[in-house]
Amino acid sequence: MTEFLQQLINGLALGAIYALIALGYTMVYGVLRFINFAHGDVFMLGAFSGYYLARIFPQESFLGAAGVFAGSMLICAIIGIIIERFAYRPLRDRPKLTVLITAIGVSLLIEYTGQHEKVFGAAPRTFPNLVPDTNFVIAGVSVNSDQILVLVVAVILMIGLQLIVLKTKIGTAMRALSFNAQAAALMGININVVISFTFGLGSALAAAGGILYAMNYTSIDPLMGILPGLKAFVAAVLGGIGNIPGAALGGLIMGVVETFTAGYISSAYRDAVAFSILILILIFKPSGLLGKTQVEKV
Amino acid sequence: MKKAHVFQYILVTILAVGFFGCKPADDGDVIKIGEFASLTGREATFGQSSHAGTALAIEEINAQGGVLGKKLVLITQDDQSKAGEPATVVRKLISRDKVVAVLGEVASSRSLEAAPICQNAKIPMISPSSTNPKVTETGDYIFRVCFIDPFQGTVMANFATKTLKLKNVAVLTDVKSDYSVGLAKFFKETFVQSGGKIGSEASYSGGDRDFKAQLTTIKAANPEGIFIPGYYTEVGLIAQQARQLGITVPLFGGDGWESSKLVEIGGQAIEGAYFSTHYSPEQQTQQSVQFVEKYKAKYNSLPDAMAALGYESALILADAIKRAGSTEGSKIRDALAATRDFEGVTGKTNIDENRNAEKPAVILTIKNGEFKYVETVEP
What we know:
The structure holds 2 protein chains of 2 kinds. Chain A has helices at about 1-30, 40-55, 60-90, 95-115, 145-165, 170-180, 180-185, 190-215, 225-240, 245-265, 270-285; strands spanning about 125, 135-140, 140-145, 220. By secondary structure, chain A is mostly helical. In chain A, the strands form 2 sheets. Chain A has a two-stranded antiparallel ribbon. Chain A has a two-stranded antiparallel sheet with strand order 2-3. In chain A, a hairpin with a 2-residue loop joins β2 and β3 (about 140-145). In chain A, α1 (about 1-30) runs antiparallel to α8 (about 190-215), α2 (about 40-55) packs antiparallel against α3 (about 60-90) and α2 (about 40-55) packs across α8. Chain B is α/β, with parallel strands linked by helices. Chain B has 2 domains: about 30-145 and about 285-360, Rossmann fold (3-Layer(aba) Sandwich), CATH 3.40.50; about 150-275, Response regulator (Rossmann fold, 3-Layer(aba) Sandwich), CATH 3.40.50. Chain B contains 13 helices and 14 strands. Chain B has a 7-stranded mixed sheet with strand order 7-6-8-9-10-13-14, with helices on both faces. Chain B has a 5-stranded parallel sheet with strand order 2-1-3-4-5, sandwiched between helices. Chain B is globular, with a radius of gyration of 23 Å. Classes of the chains: A mainly alpha, B alpha/beta. At the A-B interface, α1 and α10 of A face β7, α8, α9 and α10 of B.
């Protein structure tokens, strides 16, 4: 039983990070109907911004950690907006496939620029401790302070996101755009501003995910975003792409399933199981767990 | 029209000069030696240390007048710690740079990739520190100057039963690495033979960052120690996550741990862990003391086992070329195979009939963030 609970906690902490990345995929898809494959690399840039910012802010203090989070989220929001402005906006009226291939191109550009020795270099780096590291043991189950922080930060950010999307003017505009971009434009919504905002918001969440990931798994490198990015994409599809609570749920399920696979079967099947889930979902419920089936209008 | 003509002439001339003007570098007065190493990427410190050692040896040999009256030139290629890359760079070394021999690599999986290429080209290859037996089994042109994993596995199994007095251990293997899988196998064989029990076995893939699932399973089996035959990046993370999960039993592993990055990543969690390796700068033999002095003078840091073996591999190669009296692949090969009682930094090198070296192993522990010498185990 203790082992089971421990695995569950391990899985939830991992899943919360996937959920944060998955939110970015889902929001961009909801508004623009395309998958931003460079999202996993923004996640990596978030971790690296955190790495450099941690030198400025006081170490091992909550205030310092908050500063690192805020700074890194801001940097990545700006990067996200720049990527959209220069790579995706010029192609907005082109076929979706063109934009998709561009997204892969942007992703490779970030990865290999990052590996250049004058940028980050290919060697892994050690991420510093942002908050004092302690272990709590409750009924034989060890919970690390970093794991608690992951869950708390993830929940706060998800509630915040939900509030922005449902209660604010720009959130309403985002939803209007996802229903019908043309009609929204006719109603006087500035589409460019809303799309930039969506990219900024999604990238900021990815940055937070990157720092949380780096805090838990302390080595970071320029290719660290590839696999979590893919897993989060699966999580977004699993929950129903375009659906925000769905992405959160999908992320948590992915984290838990992966951990149980590695713990009880074999780590060799970890990724295989993740992508099998994607295939099963695409066969049996293509709209995802919480997604609504949409009728294609002709 | 006339102007365009002139331009065409100029262009053709430039191209012609470009193609035929630069003669191939004169091979007459130098001997080219190729090296491939993981200078960047996940196992970067392996390649950097090994290269530092090799470069020091080449410099020394040249200062003494070189080999066969010619200077040695070391051509180094980085394989970025990536699978697939060694094959590309070694082909380049052989076909374009026309090296007479190849030195490299530390990681067995990457040496295994380059070995068939050197074998087919009949270019002798010396791996300084790949310990998986399969590396030299590739063919008669592939050598190594370190011990092999059956010996290392035995050393660590004996250390676990005799010194640490463990009866029940868990093994956590990197399934992507030939080195890790091989070392785990040899460790388990000896450990079980001497009455121990493998309480739990788990695996990961090199590049993973989350090991908590496997460690939780291991913890449930209640082992008295965990043997982790992996490379330092993952081992550091494993140690950290093990301590976070409340696992306090000793951790121990093999020469893949040897890197200053291990302590950087593992921090407090790796304190008190043990690993076997080839060399410790604390060894007080004459060769070792001299080597440490020279290494410190050049790089301002202490050499590790990879540096010592990188240094030795170049010296042994130079010695073989001298005895062969030629840079022909087959002659260097025969001379390498006949290497006997070569006094080096890590002990005497005797190349056996399987082109491996029999050498003592050293066991180190991590104390206050530094590697400390524990004992030497003779073969």
